[in-house]
Write a structure and sequence with these properties.
Layout: H1 3-9, E1 10-23, E2 26-39, E3 43-48, H2 54-61, E4 69-74, E5 77-78, H3 87-95, E6 96-100, H4 111-121, H5 126-139, H6 155-167, E7 173-177, H7 185-202, E8 205-209, H8 213-216, E9 221-226, E10 229-235, H9 242-257
The chain binds adenosine-5'-triphosphate.
Length: 258
Amino acid sequence: MNSLSTTEEKVLSITNLSKRYEEAGHKVHALKHTSLHLKQGEFLAIMGTSGSGKSTFLNLVGALDSPNEGTIALNGRVHPDMFKEPYATQYRSENIGFIFQSYNLLKDLSVEENIALPLILKNIPVKEMKARVAEMVGLVGLSDWRKHRPVQLSGGQQQRVAIARALITKPPIILADEPTGNLDFNTTTEVLRVLGQMKEQLGQSIILVTHDPYVATFADRVLFFHDGQIAAEYICRKDEQDMDRILSRFRAIMGRAQ
Ligand SMILES: Nc1ncnc2c1ncn2[C@@H]1O[C@H](COP(=O)(O)OP(=O)(O)OP(=O)(O)O)[C@@H](O)[C@H]1O
């Protein structure tokens, strides 16, 4: 493989990213000189102790917050205004799909209306919008539920709506913060399978923050954050031992935290 194709494969190149907060005179170095590459189609899970900087990292990658130092290159290019409005909003709308623990669906809209929302905001013509929503509703297995409102759905179904909404514009990167935090084991499995299938079909890269080592086994790679830094990495082998290995790495990090 030549160096050009290697560069092209990296959808995100994060270099030396740092974030410091100061509140009431108290300084917190939430993220310390963090660097990583995310490949096209890669599923990355982030685990770590509480307060280790996971959400801070996700917020910076999503340009919801700005760093004190460091750069994020998308497809090899650093945009000088990535963290400034109005470009930050454009960056998010073109490149990022967000999935949250609390689904964040609009309660008065139906399943298909919730999924259509990002397309409405982009002024996509109605005929194309209907076709794309119908395809997406089918991909997440909710065709029979498309006229229902969120309150009429189970937690897993609601999260599938949120996944479809995040993916409807086919953004290259999905950022998910504890997306299965409110779901039981079987529903977690179902939602992660849907996310994995969508990734295979649409080719997205995923960064998912989780406290659950079972959830992390669905990823290609797990990063363990500790004290604002990447403390360890685990490449998933996709076998039944993955969860034990992830847990033992995580416990080693927890040990360092005590
Ligand atoms: N807006 C903020 N203002 C001040 N401090 C903040 C802010 N956001 C995060 N922090 C601090 O930065 C550090 C990292 O927080 P962050 O939320 O990124 O951790 P986390 O790993 O996501 O934690 P958790 O697993 O508990 O959600 C913590 O010490 C936190 O208190």
